[in-house]
Amino acid sequence: MSTPRYKRILLKLSGEVLMGEGGLAIDPAVTARVAGEIADARGAGHELCVVVGGGNIFRGLSAAAKGIERATADYMGMLATVMNALAVQNALEQIGVETRVQSAIPMASVCEPFIRRRAERHLAKGRVVIFAAGVGSPFFTTDSGAALRAAEMKCDALFKGTSVDGVYDADPKKVATATRYETVTYDSVLSQNLKVMDASAIALCRDNDIPIVVFNIRDHGNLAAVLRGEGVSTTVTN
Ligand code: UDP
User: Fold this and answer.
1) What's the CA gap between 138 and 108, in Å, rounded?
2) Which of 2, 31, 98, 145 is most buried, taking the most CB atoms under 10 A from its CB?
3) Annotation: binding site for ATP
4) SS3 at position 28
């Protein structure tokens, strides 16, 4: 097998990606489909780190607006990401993919703590490593957690799985003439406030030269296709 362009990737999934039509926060059928996409990428020879958000269950900022202290709300949000990580782990192991969950908030009876060298060993053994609890501190997001882990794990790219097929110059749901970028620079994303990831995550990727590939995870087979250099996506780069 030839070496793929992006051998080691970090896949960032928003919590909402696990939601189904029926309003279930974690829909087992949807989660199984997402796991299938990850398994296909693994099968094609990629090393996979995964960061899952928690927005389908709990968002610190929204809860803080309703009166919960911000830091406490953020810790609750981080716990939500651990639930999602376990759901993705379960779905992957049901289809025979070995995984480990590592949490930025130690939770000894539930999963491993984040230990970079240990994560390296897991990847070397072909396991998918799922990083939970973001960076482990309030006032951050899982986008920042994804950028941080991508840098620490020396990932070749950060793949951001969303429900749109890339980055547009305007909101494609509101503006009929909105055009998708094939590539766009980190600085344009920041200066035009394009909706990719939060600013600290973009800056971290820029400073560490990690391309961000934005693609639609809901399109069946799209992750593997984009990894092959096919499929529809936008790459954010220097
Ligand atoms: N969070 C946090 N620190 C982190 C990562 C997450 O405080 O490093 C909290 C924050 O409250 C956030 C919630 O966890 O709203 C869920 O994560 P996020 O909103 O990033 O999830 P996503 O939008 O990707 O589903």
Assistant:
1) 20
2) 145
3) 12-15, 55, 59, 162, 168, 171
4) helix
Q: Do residues 101 and 114 touch, judged by C-beta distance below 8 A? A: no
Task: Look up the CATH number of the domain holding residue 15.
Answer: 3.40.1160.10
Which residue of 76, 131, 142, 198 sits with most ligand 1 atoms within 8 Å of its CB, as the best mutation to test the pocket? 142
128-132 vs 99-103, strand pairing mode: parallel
Q: Is the CB of 162 under 6 A from ligand 1?
A: no
Q: Which residues form the domain of 21?
A: 8-237
pTM comes to 0.96
Burial tier of 67 (Cβ tally within 10 Å: 0-12, 13-18, 19+): exposed
Q: Which of 26-35, 79-88, 144-153, 172-181 has the lowest mean pLDDT?
A: 172-181
Q: Is residue 186 part of a domain?
A: yes
Kindly indicate the confidence band of residue 77, based on its pLDDT and cuts at 50, 70 and 90. Answer: very high
81 and 142 Cβ atoms separated by less than 8 Å: yes
| Ligand 1 atom nearest to 62, measured from its CA | 15
State the ipTM, two decimals. 0.98
Name the domain count of the chain.
1
92 within 8 A of 99, measured Cβ to Cβ: yes
Is the residue at 153 inside a domain? yes
Which ligand 1 atom sits closest to the C-alpha of 56?
25
- Establish if 2 belongs to a structural domain: no
pLDDT for residue 61 is more than 90: yes
| Residue 43 located in a structural domain | yes
